[in-house]
Protein 1
Amino acid sequence: MEKDLFSLINDRLSSFSKGHKIIANYILDHYDKAAFMTAQKLGKTVGVSESTVVRFASMLGYDGYPALQKGLQEMMRSRLTAVQRIEVTSDQMSGEDVLERVLDQDIDRIRRTLEETSREDFQRAVEQIISCNTIYIVGTRSSASIAGFLSYYLSLIFPRVKLVPSTTTSELFEKIMHIDERDLMIGISFPRYSKQTVKALDFAKHNGAKVIAITDSASSPIAKYADSLLLARSDMASFVDSLVAPLSLINALVVAVSIKNRDIVSKTFERLEQVWDEYDVYTKSGEDEK
């Protein structure tokens, strides 16, 4: 569905039957709970039949209730406050083995990322990284950690990599003001999406730079700026954003880039090993700590 589910419901609310209005109003008021209810449970909660719930989903243009539920879950992640996230997680995981449940969910996210990420976009992103003049990387809030990770490793391969700091909007534009058609911006954003990242990618695109967007959905606000769109699953785990799949995707991106630049990478790390050894950077195995 291209249109926001809430907008879709509000546009048609006056034309709904009595039963469909009851379902619609419950979803609008309690979307955080409705997103994880089966058709049977939602019907029982609002006092209508399961078949009425299924017909409601079809009437909105979804291919059955599971498709509506999936759309509601995806939209919900960008709307929930941190408090609501905690409440949802408590309801879902109460009485369970949290360690096993969270790790199982992360395994599933990596599997779904592998299935959904375009190989064509991935290879295009690798070529864009290799061929550009300067690489700008922007990611704020929880995405700042993986933006920093990507910046660290690309900086070991390329001489002009700039990690755009998460500061005020005016300072952000000061850092990227010289970006042009020779350059590349990599934007990383997951729900709840950062306005700063959206503005940075918009600026880069208007100045002719190539854009790689690393996000969770083609409907993400940064996806429309992408020359290469890399999708990674990042569902919520309580108030914590699960970034396991995005980090795995970035690992693959760095490895692919290093393979394409094997000679340069080898020479770089030969030099780094000499520097690290000369300046005693790392503790050697078996060496006593002092």
Protein 2
Amino acid sequence: MLPRSRRDVLKSAACLGAAMTAGRAVPAWPAPPLPKVKFHGRELTRLIIGSNPLYGYMHFNGLYSRFVAEWMTQDRRLEILHRAEKAGINTWQVHYNTDTMQDLRRYRDEGGKMQVLILADFELMKNWKLLPEVARVNPIGVGHHGNRTDERFRKGEMNVVEDFCKAVHDAGVPAGVSTHNPAVVDYVEEHGWNVDYYQTCLYRVTRTADEARRDFGEAPVGEIYFEKDPERMCAMIRRTKKTCFAFKLLAAGRLPDIERAFRFALTNVKPQDPVIVGMCPKYKDEITDNVNLVGRLSA
């Protein structure tokens, strides 16, 4: 007969082997729960599910975006949202347009409880009179879209961004500025704008080719991801007292070491700052993996 200690070890190993699913081991113990942060009277999980992959915006190449957009039917999008909520995520960052608002209505009709952080674009950027209607879905905030912000900053038209934030406040909703450029946060802080939060991309993907050539001597092909960009943005994030919702911490799927990317983001933003991560669980359970990873790294 085997000694009890060795028998127990072998039994545990057998159980672990039986728990192998979809080519990966399921932890033998529950992961720590997602930490939560306070924001304007709300409680948000520090991990927020993003909307880009749900609508085929993959920021990789056009073929991949088209493939994902065709796979992401409305039924699959709603399934992913419900799975995210069941896994413990309580907030969804979503772009405003006709399709996303239809999905939000269906999600809530089906009993979905996640809060929404809205990023203005498309119809909402063109027609601010829609803001009272947007306010009726009770978002935790509405932010000026990052690409549009960076374009205004480049043209010296930041007054338009500020006016949008004032219109959001007039609708009774917290207002934010999304950007990919740390200089935008610096500008808003220096000018003392009345904004409630920033949505901060860890990579300055809106650099023009000319800006890249000026700063680095050459420009890459396609969207621009430089390895030191996260350090530059996180330094700015730590300089402001306002909540920053950090996004693209995985460089739109380009980083092979996912745990390292999560650890960098969680330890280099402020403790009050959530992270937004898009998820496409076609080939693996990214939702469970990300929830477990953030829970463990935050424990």
Protein 3
Amino acid sequence: MKTKLTEHLTDMGFFLVGGALYAFAINFFTAPNNIAPAGVTGLATVLNFVFDIPIGIAMLAINVPLVLLGIFFLGSRFMIKTCVATVIYSLLIDIGSLVLPQYKGDRLLSAVYGGLISGFALSLAFWRGGSTGGTDIIARLMYNYRPQLSMGRIILLLDLVTIGIASFVYGDVNSALYSLVVAFAASTIIDKVLYGNGGGKLFYIVSKNSSEIASRIFSEMDRGVTYLKAEGGYTRGEQRVIMCAVRRNELFELNRIIRETDENAFTIVCEAGEILGFGFQTGYRM
């Protein structure tokens, strides 16, 4: 019970920090300079420009059907965190619009810094197994079926549609170009924070419930495992060691599965400088 409470509080901490950073990026850098940061936030920014609807409220309205879609295809565990993160980020954007100053200076600087900060803010939600709704949900659906594609690049492709709409509404091609800078900067930061430089973590798990842990990794994470034959040095008994490679953003989920299945499991986590193969990078470097 205490562990679950700690996890929930940690989730809230990540979401609050991420939401505050996201609100700062939108209200201080992008929105005042007519730059749509793409995705649902970009659409909400355009609605704010045309109809003066608060950006956060517009985000929530657009996200409702997408969240329902996510619950159907992704399951309630992921979507509960997504709902919480979406509400927190949206509310903090509208609260921030009331208290934060606006930077109306160099639009390129606004695009770069707005993209970097918003990308880091979004990665905090991804890190805890959630998202901020919108195209993040669509990207997660696509990622589940095409795990060899990075989350950041999927979002970048989806954002191009929103950028085109924003450019038309603003009547300014420069707005589209600056929005591309925001999208590229955000997607780059997301990939760096979540995936590093192509590496991840390598787990060695020793447990009496190895079969159940492996089964849950298959079903809940869509990851494969390898069994290693081992012999206990003290007991001299044969046992199986689970070896599993994961991305950095999957650490939380795998640790949760291990703790829930066998709280006495012996786990070794190693740094993997680079992971190649299905579900990771598919090309080999020369």
Protein 4
Amino acid sequence: MAQLDDLRKQISLVESDLDEGLLGLTDQQTLETFRIEFLGRKGRIARLFKVLGELDADARAEAGRLLNALKDHANTAFDKCRDKLQIVTLEGRITKEKVDLTLPGVYRSLGHLHLLTQVQQEIESIFLRMGFDVATGPEIESEYYNFEALNIPEDHPAREEWDSFYIDGSHLLRPHTSPVQIRVMEQTDPPVRIICPGRCYRRDTQDATHSPVFHQVELLWVEEGLSLANLKYVIELFVREFFGEGYKMRLSGDFFPFTEPSVQVHMRSRGSSDWLELGGAGMVDPAVLTNVGYDPEKVTGFAFGFGVERMAMLRYGIDDIRTFLINDLRFIEQF
């Protein structure tokens, strides 16, 4: 009986310490420490169960009942504290993460397309509505597509290294998007109605009006019965769509190896006496048509090329082409 009385004292001490320990359970860490101390495999309650084997047979049943009652009490108390802490943690998380819909919103600026991209897409949209398709091609081209197929002779200055960026002896960064026209005509029977937008490269010294990298949109229309009058009408229609009413346009004679006759396109706004150059144009040279397998006796065509940067500069009054490349947000955010 002395052994049972001693066990009762130990159970009473453990129960007292357990109840006192419950008061200090304020987070998951202290809860786990409590579980290990009292309910772990080597905890205080588990150690008391080992005493059963040392008791007399008459006292063992009573001791087992007392120990099981202690264990049930500890498990019940632990479960209640765990559930309470989970609720408190969840409520704290909800309070911390909730959104106060009465607070004023915070403005976050969104990015947008660069002005050059906007202008190019608008140009494409205008010609798509006029029935033209958009064609693209590689930026690294062979001399054949860049020059020979376009009737540009070997002694032309554009074929020299000081004017073009050569990759090797026969390939270079395209100085214009005209090679796309040749590639399309080689694979397509007339009629052909395309525009060719893209990036071009020339060995120009960068200044307010020149850049070694620029964007161009060229147009090509090949069909039976086309004339210079058709070319003038298409350009006038485009100028009116892109710049709006009040602009005047004129054509002046020029020379390009791939068009005959060739013209320069100029325009001026209402109230201005200055004519501004838009780009070159002309009727496709019969030699170019022959190079792609077309019969120049049956079909004619015209083409023109405008710089995207120049179009943007004329429309928005930008006087320095370098402005497009410096990533100044004060400029970019205006458009």
